[in-house]
Design goal:
Layout lengths: L1 H4 L10 E6 L5 H11 L6 E6 L6 H13 L3 E5 L8 E4 L4 E6 L13 E4 L7 H10 L6 E6 L7 H8 L8 E6 L15 H9 L2 H7 L17 H4 L2 H13 L6 E6 L6 E9 L2 E10 L4 H10 L6 E6 L13 H9 L3 E2 L5 H12 L10 E3 L4 H10 L21 H14 L3 H5 L9 H10 L3 H10 L1
Parallel strand pairs: 1-7, 1-8, 2-5, 2-6, 6-7, 9-12, 11-14, 12-13
Antiparallel strand pairs: 3-4, 4-5, 9-10, 10-11
Helix pairs in contact: 2-3, 12-14, 16-17
C-alpha cells in the first residue's frame, strides 16, 4: 500500500501490523489513513483505545477525510465518555471501542481493527483484538509510542521484526518522517540537536521510535508477555477457591521502611508459581503492613510466611519484624539465608520460558506493579558507558520484591531442580499439616511440638 511503500515498508501482504511512532511523527494520521484506505473492502471498522477518549483522534481524522469528499452519511459524537460511531457511503460503519470496557467488544466482528495508544493497553487487549478479526480474516493495525521500553508493546515490536507465530510485522515511524515539522528529515538541525542532547536510549525511544531496554538488567529473562499473565492468575485463584484444602497461599516477605516493604501473595500449583497480589509500600511499620495483608481477600488462603533472615534482627528498641508477624498472625514462618547470586540464579530458572512447554514456571498478576517494575527495569547491575555489566553483584536497590521472591523460591524448591529431585529439598509442609500427621499416629506431644515450632 502506498502509505507503507512511501516509508520503505510493504504492508500489502501482512494482515497484522505494528507501528511505533516517535514524538510528533504523525502516527495517528497514519493509523487513520490505513483504516480509510480499506473502506472499499470493509463494512465495520473498530478503533480500540485504552479508553473511549483516546480512540477519538483517529476517529476525527477518518471523519475529516470522509467528510471532505461528502462520504459521511451520519455521525454520533457525544461529549460524554462513551463510544462514537459514524456511517459512511457504501454502508461502512466506524465505531470506537475501549480496552477498559471489554464486554463491549462482543457482537459483530470487524473487518479492520485499529488498536491505538497500544502501549497503554494490557497484553490481553492484543489477544482479544487478534481473536476479533479472525472470523472475517480481517486486518489489525497497532500503533502507539513506547512507554519506557518495557512491557508487551516493545517486546512485541522486537519479536515482529522477524517471522513469528502471530504473523505480525513491525516497523518504526521516526519523528523525522514528519517533513512538515522536520523538513530536512533525519538531517534536520532540530533532530541532530536532540540526538546530541538526549541520552541514547531516550532518543531511540522518543524520537527514532525504536525500543531500547534498560542496560544491565538483572533479569533479562523476564517478559511481560510471558510472565505477566492475568489469565494464569485467574485460573490459580479459581483453583484456590475450588479446593482451599489442597492449595494454600504463602506470603513471601522482605521487610522495609525507608526502602520498599514487599509482601507477595503466592500460590504454588503443580510446581508452577503464581504471584497473585502484593503489598509494595514505603514508610509503613510492620503492624500497618500486617493490617493491609489481613484485609486482602486472599488472606483466608494464607497458610505460612517466608521472610528475609534479617527479619529476626531487632532495629534498636523495636521488635524484630519476624516477632511482630508471628505475634499478629500465629502462622509458621521460615527464614533461611539466601545469597544474592543464589537467589538471582534460582529466580531466573522460573522466569525463563521452557523450550518444551513454551511457558515459564512463574506468573505474575498485573496488580504486582512493584515486582514487575523491579524485574523489568529497576534491578540492575553496574554498567560501563557501553552498557556492559562491570560487576558480578547488582546494585542493592530496587530489589525488595525480587528478594522476597528469591527467598520463597529457594525455600520451596531449593537451589536447583537437580538437588530437589535427589531429595535435598522437600516440599514445604505447613505446621498444621505436620501436627495432624503426628495426631493421626497417636503422637500428641509431637503434634504439640510441631504446632509450636511452626
Amino acid at each position: 500500500m502506498p502509505i507503507f511503500l512511501a516509508r520503505g515498508h510493504d504492508g500489502e501482504e501482512a494482515r497484522i501490523l505494528l507501528v511505533a511512532g516517535g514524538e510528533r511523527a504523525g502516527k495517528s494520521e497514519l493509523t487513520a489513513d490505513y483504516g480509510y484506505s480499506l473502506f472499499p473492502w470493509s463494512s465495520l471498522i473498530w478503533i480500540l483505545g485504552p479508553d473511549y477518549e483516546q480512540a477519538r483522534h483517529e476517529f476525527r481524522y477518518i471523519y475529516r477525510n470522509a467528510d471532505a469528499i461528502g462520504g459521511v452519511v451520519s455521525a454520533n459524537m457525544p461529549n460524554g465518555p462513551g463510544p462514537w460511531n459514524m456511517l459512511l457511503q457504501g454502508g461502512v460503519r466506524v465505531v470506537t471501542k475501549s480496552a477498559s470496557d471489554p464486554e463491549k467488544m462482543a457482537g459483530e466482528a470487524p473487518d479492520v481493527l485499529l488498536m491505538v495508544e497500544a502501549g497503554q493497553q494490557p497484553y490481553e487487549a492484543l489477544l482479544r483484538a487478534r481473536g476479533r478479526i479472525a472470523e472475517k480474516r480481517g486486518r489489525l493495525f497497532i500503533s502507539g509510542t513506547f512507554e519506557g521500553s518495557v512491557g508487551w508493546y516493545p517486546e512485541t515490536w522486537s519479536a515482529w521484526q522477524v517471522a513469528n507465530d502471530m504473523g505480525g510485522v513491525s516497523f518504526s515511524l521516526p519523528s523525522w518522517s514528519n517533513l512538515a515539522i522536520y523538513p530536512k528529515g533525519r538531517k534536520d538541525p532540530e533532530i541532530l540537536s536532540m540526538e546530541k542532547s538526549m541520552p541514547p536510549e531516550v532518543f531511540s525511544e522518543r524520537i527514532a521510535g525504536k525500543p531500547m531496554p534498560p542496560r544491565g538488567l538483572v533479569f533479562p529473562e523476564f517478559s511481560t508477555t510471558a510472565n505477566v499473565r492475568d489469565d494464569k492468575i485467574e485460573w490459580a485463584i479459581r483453583q484456590l477457591r475450588a479446593a482451599p484444602s489442597e492449595h494454600q497461599v504463602g506470603l513471601w516477605i522482605d521487610p522495609g521502611y525507608a526502602h520498599a516493604y514487599a509482601v507477595e501473595f503466592v500460590a504454588i500449583i503443580q510446581d508452577h508459581v503464581y504471584i497473585l497480589d502484593e503489598i509494595y509500600a514505603r514508610g509503613l511499620i510492620n503492624e500497618e503492613v500486617i493490617q493491609i495483608a489481613q484485609n486482602n481477600s486472599l488472606w483466608k488462603f494464607v497458610s505460612h510466611l517466608v521472610m528475609d533472615i534479617a527479619s529476626k534482627t531487632h532495629a534498636g528498641a523495636s521488635r524484630a519484624p519476624l516477632e511482630v508477624w508471628q505475634g499478629s498472625t500465629h502462622l509458621p514462618i521460615r527464614t533461611n539465608p539466601v545469597g544474592i547470586e543464589d537467589g538471582i540464579a534460582r529466580t531466573r530458572t522460573f522466569l525463563r520460558v521452557d523450550p518444551l512447554t513454551h511457558e515459564p514456571r512463574l506468573f505474575v498478576s498485573r496488580r504486582c506493579n512493584g515486582l514487575i517494575w523491579e524485574l523489568s527495569k529497576g534491578y540492575q547491575y553496574p554498567t560501563d558507558d557501553g552498557g556492559l555489566a562491570i560487576a558480578t553483584k547488582p546494585y542493592d536497590r530496587n530489589n525488595d520484591a525480587a528478594k522476597a521472591v528469591a527467598y520463597g523460591l529457594v525455600e520451596q524448591f531449593g537451589l536447583s531442580d537437580i538437588r530437589r529431585k535427589r531429595g535435598a529439598m522437600k516440599r514445604y509442609v505447613p505446621a498444621w499439616e505436620r501436627a495432624n500427621r503426628w495426631l493421626a499416629r497417636g503422637k500428641k506431644e509431637r503434634a504439640i511440638m510441631a504446632a509450636e515450632q511452626g
